[in-house]
Structure formats: structure tokens, C-alpha cells
Amino acid sequence: MEKEGAKEETQQVLKVLEALKQASHEIQCNPSPDSPGSNSSSAIKALLELETESDSILSYDPHLSNLSHHLTNLRILINSLQKSRSHHGLRSFLTRRIITLDISRVAGSIESEIQSWIHRETIINLIRALQLQQSICSSCSLSSVEEDKFLDSIDQFRIRLKQGFSNEFQDLILKSKVFSKLESVLCRSNFSKRVREKAAFVIVELVKFNKDVFVGQVLMGQTVRALMSMGSLSSLQILYSLIKSIKSPLVDDIEENGETQKIISFLSSDDLLVRIMAMDCVLEIGYFGRREAVEEMMNVGLIKKLVELQRSELGGDLIDLDKVGEEGENRGVEVGEWERNGRWGRRENGERRLLESHPFASCVGRFAVALEVGEGLRRREKRWFKQEILTRVREASVSDAEAVTIIAEVLWGSSP
């Protein structure tokens, strides 16, 4: 009960601070209430009302003592500004200008103090939730209530990461060792899939937050192996996003750890969406992969599997499909919460529609294009792999007609 009361009190403080932050931001942007079109009069009024209301609320937290001090200073400055308006002349004008600048400065300090408190509370709540996970034995799982609390803390942290980089917030993250704690949750097979996936999604956001710091932690840790062991749609979406963010270093890591064959195996999944997501991962690996990674994919039967997928009812070749596109049915494949808008989704509208209804259309040619325009291979390596693809297409095709069609796409491209 005490914990619930503390949580309610924190939520009350947060509500007041968010209102103070908004009012402070408006005042900081336009501190003079006499300016044309200014909203600062209402912002100042709201902030002073909140300052009176917040006295008792802010007093319980020592981290908010500076904020109380700034609010008091702001009230004094606003009173001084109002008194100065009863006087005229150059001296009074200059006094009002100085006070206005001081109001903007103090409003900025208020906003900064509030943001620091929000950062601190976000990290504290997350660390509490992560420590709860670590305290649970390897054979136990979370209750539904504990899961909901954990996921709520994760969501709040993820929302803050999406707001952009902050040195102060990063320092708090590093001091609290958030990354290693999240990775520990991801690697715990006794936790539910949604808990592990949420932890993984936050790892992606950490990489986007600052690649210079968190890419190294991904490469040195167990994130990729844990994602591969899960083998779910979301885990492949996360892997896809990490490949796009980290590029060749992560592809090298996947190849060195022997995970390439697992990705290829997902192309045979019973779940269509998993197959589609695995295809996207294969294309990204082809684009960023160096010789060893591409060679490994070839050696574990990638081209044979792509030929089979292109032969399936969800395959075909884009040139022929474009000709009959108006007559074909639209299967409207969806891919979960992440829109497939990556490198291979940004095509002409007509081709995009064809790939939605036939996600494996011209997949051999699309893979060849990924190698051709990609960043991982040297020019002579690209030529060699193109010839290797042609050889393997001939071996995998069930007829000369099929081989000719696919080879033409590999040689000349797959776009209609």
C-alpha cells in the first residue's frame, strides 16, 4: 500500500511539473506579455497559480528544492515588471528590458530543472522494474501485475528516448547500467515473449539514441543471439532494425556467430509474416554484408530457397505481375506494428502494391540488386557473386523457362 501511495504522489508531482514546464516554455519563448500575439500573460498567470499550488507538493522531494527557488524568483521578477509599468522614461524602459530577460532566463532554468527531475524519475522507475526482474529466480516467471508494471516503466523510458539525445539523460543511463539490465531480461527465457520483446525494442531505441555508445554494447553482448533464439516476428523486426542501424559490423557479428543459417531457415517458417520479415533481413544482409557473410548465405542454400519462394503463389516476377496487376487480387499482407518502409519498401507505388500482394516476387533478382548496389562488397566481388547466383539459379530451377526468367531479372534488374 505504501508503494501505491508513493506512486500516486509521484504521478501528482509529474502532472504539476508537466504543466509548469509547458508554462515555463511559453514564457521563455516570449517573456513579454505586451508583445503582439503573445500568450505569455496566460502562461505567467497559469505558472503563478501552479507555483502556489505546488508549494506542498514540491517540498517532499529534495531534488525539487532548486525548482521552488526558481519559482520564487520568477514571482519576484514578475511583480517587479508589473510595478515598473507605472513609470515612464528611458530608465524604466531599460529596467523592463532587463527584467524581461531575467524572466526568460529563470523560465529556462525552471524548464531545465523539471526535465532533470523527469529524467531521474524515468530512470529510477525503470531500474526498480529491472531489479525486480533480476531478483526473480531463473525458474520463475512474472505475475500479470508485475508484467504490466514492468511494461509501463519500459514504455515511459522508450518514450523519453524517442524525444532525442541528452547528455544528462545518457549519463543517468550509463551510471545505472540500463543496457546490461535490459539485455539480461531479453536473455531470460523464463520471462514472457512480450516482456523480452519490449526489452529488445528499447535496446533498438538506445542504439538510435546514441550509436557511438550503444552499438558497441550490442556487438559485445548477447542481444542478437537472444533475438535469434526467440524466432518471433517482433524479434526479426528488431533484428532488421538493428542491421539497418549498425550495418556491416552487425552483419559481420551475425556471420561470425553462425547465425546466418538461422535467418535463412526462417524463410521456411509456417508463419507468412515471419517469412516476409526474414526476407527483409536477407536483403539488408546482402546490402551491408561483406564477402564472408554473403558467401555463408550462398553456402547454406539461400538461392535455392529464394527460387522456391519465387515459384510459390506469393512469388512470380514483377514484370509479368505488373502487366496483370489490375486483374490480380490484392492479398494486402500486413506486417505488425512496424511499417515495412525500409530500403526495399521505398519503390514506385505500382511495384510496392505488387510486393504487398506478392511479397516474394522477383526475390532472386531483388537479392542480386542488393548485392550490386550495396556497401559491403568490392566491385570484383559483386561480379563474382552475380555469376555464382546465375549458376545456382540454373541448378535450382525446375524448367528452362523458369531459369531463363530469373536469370534475365538477375542480369537486367527486377523492376517492371
TrEMBL record:
InterPro entries documented for this protein: ARM-like, ARM-type_fold
The protein, known as: Coatomer beta subunit
UniProt organism field: Ilex paraguariensis (yerba mate)
